[in-house]
Specification:
The chain is α+β, with helices and mostly antiparallel strands. Strand 5 and strand 6 form a beta hairpin.
């Protein structure tokens, strides 16, 4: 895998622009240092959305859009709002480039559609201190298109389901052929901690830099570089 990772670095797959592409995911898998039995973190890399180097719950990208100057209708002179009257940007870097150096009034012309980290739909000017002021009827098509893309991006629910199964496995790790005992309730430990020592080991249970007995409090004992003896 080290050789494969070296080739991927030479090809530039480590760059941030590859984070949410299959190329970036393959590079992350090649340099992954989790043990062989920890499949959860690997599935999270394949199904999650990269944010700051970590793969969070999958979510679609933010769409930024702005109304352009409209053509007036014949006779009534009311503005026409065909679909081509909008400028839509679906990439954050491209949006930053397009809005670089503009004033606050010009920035306020841009609106956004996205899902927040709780999966809630957000619309309007929330990025600049405002709230959702509503969508005009001519903007409904844009929202429908975004939601269709969001469902497809989530593999119609399968992607989120796989991610959460992997997240549960990554948090509640059970090492094969290990003790896997958990701290007692009220001992100061977490219920998802499992002892990493071999079965029927003498002395205290241990995971990371924490030790505990079947009864009593969990103790922080960082006396081993790897955390597990």
């Amino acid at each position: 895998m080290n050789r494969a990772a070296g080739l991927m670095r030479r090809w530039g797959w480590y760059a941030s622009r590859h984070d949410n592409r299959i190329t970036g995911r393959l590079y992350r898998l090649a340099v992954d240092r989790h043990p062989w039995w920890d499949w959860g973190h690997r599935v999270m890399i394949l199904t999650g959305t990269c944010v700051g180097g970590n793969y969070d719950e999958p979510h679609p990208t933010t769409w930024y859009y702005r109304r352009n100057t409209s053509r007036p209708m014949w006779r009534t002179k009311y503005p026409r709002w065909p679909r081509r009257a909008f400028t839509v940007i679906t990439d954050y870097t491209a949006f930053g480039t397009a809005t670089d150096g503009i004033n606050e009034d010009q920035l306020h012309d841009w609106q956004a559609i996205n899902l927040n980290q709780d999966g809630e739909l957000q619309l309007g000017h929330q990025y600049w201190g405002g709230g959702f002021y509503g969508l005009r009827p001519d903007e409904w098509w844009l929202l429908r298109k975004y939601l269709r893309r969001a469902h497809r991006h989530n593999w119609w629910g399968l992607r989120s389901w796989l991610y959460h199964q992997a997240l549960h496995s990554a948090v509640h790790q059970r090492k094969p052929f290990a003790c896997n005992a958990t701290p007692a309730a009220g001992s100061g430990g977490y219920s998802h901690w499992h002892c990493r020592l071999r079965r029927h080991h003498p002395g205290a249970h241990r995971t990371g830099n924490y030790e505990w007995y079947a009864s009593g409090r969990v103790r922080h004992v960082p006396d081993h570089p790897g955390g597990d003896r």
